[in-house]
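#structure-requests
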Amino acid sequence: MEFFLLVGGAVALVLLWRRVDRLEAELRDLRAAAETLAVPQPQPQPQPQPDARPAATVRPPAMVVPRVARREPAPAVRTPAPESTLPESAGPEPTWPEATGPESAHKRFAFDFEELFGRQLPIWAGGITLAVAGFFLVRYAIDVGLLSPSVRVVMGLVFGLALIAGAEAAHHFRIRVADPRVPQALSGAGLAVLYASVFLAGTFYGLIGTGTAFVGLALVTAAAIGLSFRFGLPSAVLGLVGGFAAPALVGAEESNLPLLAFYLALVAGGLGQAARRQAGFAQGGGWSHGGWLGLAGIVGGLGWGLIMLIAQPSGPGDVVATGFYFVVLGALLPALALPDLRESRWLRLAAGGFASLQMAALLETSGYEPLSWGLYLLLGAAFAGLGWRNAGLREASAIAGGVGAWMLGFWYDPDPARFAMIAAAMALVFAGVPLVHLWRGQARGADVAALAAVPLAIFIAALWHFDALAGRGAWLFGAAGLMLAAMPALGACRIGPVAGWRGAVLQLSAVWTAYAAITRIAPTDSLAWIAGAAAAALAFGLPDRRWAARAALAVAFVWALWPLGWWLGAAAESLPGSPLLVGELPAARDAALYLLPGALAALVLGFREQGRRALAARMAAALPAIAAAHILFKQLFAIRDLAEFAALGLAERSAWEGLLLLAALILLRLPARWSPRPELAAALAGASLAHFAYYTGLIHNPLWSAQAVGPTPVANLLVVAYGTGAAAVVLLRRALILPDAAQRPFRVACDAALMLIISLFALSELRQAFAGSILTDPPVGQAEDLLRSLLGIVLAGGFLLWGARSGTRSWRIDSLVLMLVAVCKVFIYDTAGLEGLVRIASFLALGFSLIAIGWFYSRLLRVAPGAEGGGAAEGAAMPAPPPGPAAVPPGSSAAS
């Protein structure tokens, strides 16, 4: 199975390489020809017009690709092409004769079964088969015990050298061979056999020492690189792919992990060096002509790194070898073996991040020993050092810093002194170096991110482990945190106030790290006030660095989350009708310690901000401020059971709604420079009205809920409760600014709310005159019921009168609705229980009332002449009085 996978992968690799090689060759030739055409040719003397035409006929052959020029031996084609257009990377390839028959550039990319499976693949498959034959020859000798170990190894070395000698012979007689792939396949197979033989001698048999094995592997890798320049890139590909596959194909039972790590590092390094030389990175080369070999070496090496981690390195030598291997694969090779292109930035980031994760896994398996931490810091130092010249590695350094801080948090039961040393070293490597870049004006986004994240993450990990430190240890802990906070603070000072997201993240990190350090020193009860005071001080002291004040405000709001959530939960439980008792709320001390600091700090920031940000800050202050005020207010009445709620509930609700209304009125009356936008006043007035409508008007209305209103008629709590609701409607109508299209519907709704409040108040006062303080007892009598109908008629008349006087149609319409309800009640319900003269009197009174109201309505609201239809409009004016007799002509309808 391994054989077929290896063959398939090698075939795909060769095909892709040939395709990319041809594309870049044509692209380079076209660019060179275009540059040649762009250079103006010297003209020592003016030429006649007919003589200039042959020059135009000479230019097209310069655009011919060199491969096509080689296939056409006619001198007419070779002569006009300048020598500078030939690519330098062609190497010895022009000496090899091409296949017979001309073929165009389009035919090269066409699929030809006979070309692929008859001419191209057999040679490459033969080279791979020879390499695999060498591997299995050695393995067979091992299995059956034919020869001694030393003889087996020598046979493998001889076989590999013989294959390379055959490649050299094919290169020497290249005219007869007429195909450059023959020496390439032979050299690749010979290199793979040499890799396997040296690895077998040093790892499985122990015939040579570790140093000798290192030298042998290095020599084979150097030979692979050298042969790639003599025989072409495919030989290096085959040899180095075989080198990666050699440890798996040999199948040794016990491997030497340090030797394996060194061997794999050499293979990956050889790929990287071959990529640099073949693609010409120094001259701006890209991925083709072997530039992708470096990426292939990094990917293959990291894949072997996972296998090495699965083996769980245990001894110090294994840990050191594996750690150095990850440093090479994650930092050195991405810096040296990848071209300086845009996409290489993300490839370096991926390689560095993957190597950091593998190093973290090694740290975990080794038990967080100092040796493993040293290797991790070595990886970070490699990122930092190479990042001075290759800025693309700074993103990988930031990733490594974040992973390292995460591993600090996972460290099980660390020693405080050892933890402090490693944390300090990590801060210097992963945050100190970015701070130097920032100070020199050479920082990238990754440097700013690392400088902001690493100190905060390190201190959070320290808090996770050493939160219980007290006394002198706590003071030292806090001082260390302040030193960590100084790093992003210095960066924020250096970067300036106008720096976009960079200044924001540095200010956030500095404030949060410093606050976390202060928590180790200051008492717990004062921490929320410290955050709020810091927010206010930063808002006034550093007005240009607003994110610092916002960071402190966020901390103050975090302290407010717990009591605010408690308060919201208790308020939600009161929505179905359960009384909100004082014992179900946070204590007054909690409200003062945790809710008020955030609210006051947000108000301060609201005065320092401008526009929508100021409004957002004030809105954010509203919720914790209302919660704190409500909790403190509930302490005044201290209602603890249902009996106290029945006696004091209406008074408590009316007082709370009145306080909200008073706050809204104060906001509207403040001077313009101190007053916020009227939306906040409208929000408070709306909150007062909503509280009244839901709790007093619906859930705990005295008409159907046991709520004491006071024993005195008229002068009781009903006046306060319903008066507060009516005032909330009026103030909301004044404070809320709406578009023109919404003003009339909103005004109509406010008029309807006022009429409903007045009707409920009158009905409640009537009930209080018969029942006393508790309106639910005794039941409603016949006289009270008749008076309710009369009260409805009187209220309808009053609404009609007010609507006529103010010219408001909504009041007149609602008065008619109320009159209709009262008449229906009298005819359907009231008269059913009356008999005799009482029934006759009630009907007489109702009839005269209806006639009077109709006459009043028609008399006061008659449409004036010339204003037809005006009565249908909102706010229609009163019509003029009828003309006197002198102004009426005799015989007119008006005189009659």
